[in-house]
Amino acid sequence: MIEPLNLNDEGAGVARDAVVLTEADDGTSSGGSARGRYDRWFAIVITMVVLLPFVTAIVTRVGRSYLPVQDFAVIDLRVRDVFTRDIPLVGPYSRYGWNHPGPLAFWLVAPFAALFGSPAWATQVGFVMLQATAVVWTAIVSWRRRGLWALALWMAVVCASYVAVGPAAILEPWGPNVALPFFVLFCCLVWLISGDEVTLLPQAAVVGSFLVQTHVGYAPAGRRRGRVRCPRHVASLREALARRHSAPSHPLGRRRRPGAVAAFPLRVSSLPAGQPSAGRGSDGLPRLEPEGRDRERS
Predict the structure, then answer these.
(1) Which domain holds residue 151?
(2) Quick check: pTM over 0.85?
C-alpha cells in the first residue's frame, strides 16, 4: 500500500526559508538606507559649516551703512546702472584702462540690490550671496555624482582657498574675490567631466563664461599676433578625452578614472596705459600670455 506523501513539513520548511531570506533582504536594505541617511546628514553638516562665514557676513551686513571706495565703488555704481538706460555691457573696469569681458556678475547682483533700493550694503551682501551660491552648487554636484567623500574633498578645497586668500575675500565685492569659489566649482565640474560625466558640460560652460566675464585672467587662451592659441595642456586634455570616448567599452562596465585639472597661470603686463611695450598689442590692450613664454624670453 502506497502511503501519500506528507508535504506539510516540507512546505513549512520552504516557507521558513523564504521568511528568513525576506528578513535578510530587509535587513540589508534597511542598513543601506540608514547609511544613506547618515551620509546625507553628514553632507548637510559639512556644507553648513563651510557656509557659516557667508551666513554670518549676510546677517551682520544687511541694513548696515557701507561706503565703498576705489574698485568697490565702481562696481557698486555699475550694479545700480543695470536697470537704467546705461546698462553695463562689459565687466569691471581695470586700472590699466580697459574693462573685463562681461557684466554677468552685475546682472546677477542687481535684482537683489533693487529690492532694497540699491543701497551700497545690498551690493556687498549680493556678492556674498553669489559666492555662497557657488559653494552650494559645488556641494550639490559633488554629492550627487560621487557621494560624501567627493563633497568633503571639494568643501576642503573651498576652505583652503579662502584660508589662503584671507577672510576679506568674503566681504569685498571685487571680481577676483567673487570668482574664487566659482573657479573651485569649475575645477570640480571639469574633474567630473573627465570621469565621463559629460552631462555636466553645459554647467561647466556657464561657470567658465562667468569666470572669464568677471576676470579676464581666467581666460584659457591668450591673444598673440592676431591668433588665438590655446595652451598645450588644453589640447592634450582634449585629445585624451577624445581617445577615451573612442575606445571600446570595458567588459565590466563604464570605467571611472579620476581626472586631472590643469591650471594655466596667465600674466598681464603691469605697465601703465599708453606706454609702448612688447607686452601690448597694436590696439593698446595688454596681451595675455602663458607664464612659460616669459621664461623662454629670459
Answers:
(1) 42-219
(2) no
